[in-house]
Amino acid sequence: METPSRSSRFWPLGGRATALLLVAAVATGVAGGFALHLTTMHRRAASELFAATTAHALSGDAVWPAGTRPAPPFVLRDQSNRPVALSGQHGRAVLLAFMDSHCARECKLEGPVIGDALRQAGSRRPVTLLVVSVNPWQDTAASSRSAAARYRLGGDWHWLRGSLAELRPIWRAYAIEVVRTPSDVNHSTAIYLLDGRGYERAGFNWPFAASQVARDLRRLAGPPAA
After folding, report:
1. Quick one: which of 66, 83, 129, 138 is 20 to 30 A from 221 by CA?
2. Is 8 among the domain residues?
């Protein structure tokens, strides 16, 4: 399996995601250490976001110039149990999301917006959706397909699953925080847009508009196929 090549970059967590995860951390008795970690995280995020403003052709909450942030590689199995490698998506724009097929809160709002963004981007453009599971304890091939149907995900999409040992380094590489509680799995809700060379170009924190994500996907994917 390809494994992520970098440590966490700290970008995605904003105030909304931080609050969500702190609530979960309090519920599980780990808030003190987690809050200390977030203080360091926000200092690093501030300098990174300031540097990112030069890539203003895209409209994400964070944007990065071409060729500066290679996306950490991984290989996971999808809803059809087929191995899918991030490196195999070169030549296509990629929307990379992190969701739980059993989620009854943010994911059920975020998922349909992602589906709408893909439709607005256009079926004739080379775009792939990769959803990395944040619930290795419950996500299955069947639940992934069911969630994709509820969210009306179309085109080239893959809901990627793995064990906790396989998924945890991927979450860390993309700065996705996951906190399991007795009744739920709380997680940050950032999405990344990658260009056809496998570089991160834009990131959005939930809530985001389908039209903005679609606009950036069209720019990264290029003109529609003839």
Report:
1. 83
2. no
Cα–Cα distance measured from residue 95 to residue 118, given in angstroms and rounded to the nearest whole number: 9
pLDDT tens digits, residue range 152-183? 999 999 999 999 999 999 999 999 999 998 88
- 169 φ, ψ to 5°? -65, -25
pTM of the model: 0.80
Class of residue 134 by CB neighbours under 10 A (exposed 0-12, middle 13-18, buried 19+): buried
Residue 1, domain member (yes or no)? no
The answer to whether position 5 is within a domain reads: no
CA distance 150 to 147: 5
Phi, psi of 23 (to 5 degrees): -60, -45
Residue 78 is part of a domain; what is its CATH number? 3.40.30.10
Predicted confidence (pLDDT) per residue in 58-114, tens digit: 999 999 999 999 999 999 999 999 999 999 999 999 999 999 999 988 899 999 999
Partner residues linked to 132 by β-bridges: 98, 160
Classify 47 as helix, strand or coil. helix
Q: How far is CA 7 from CA 71, 73, 151, 192, 223, in A?
A: 12, 12, 31, 16, 34
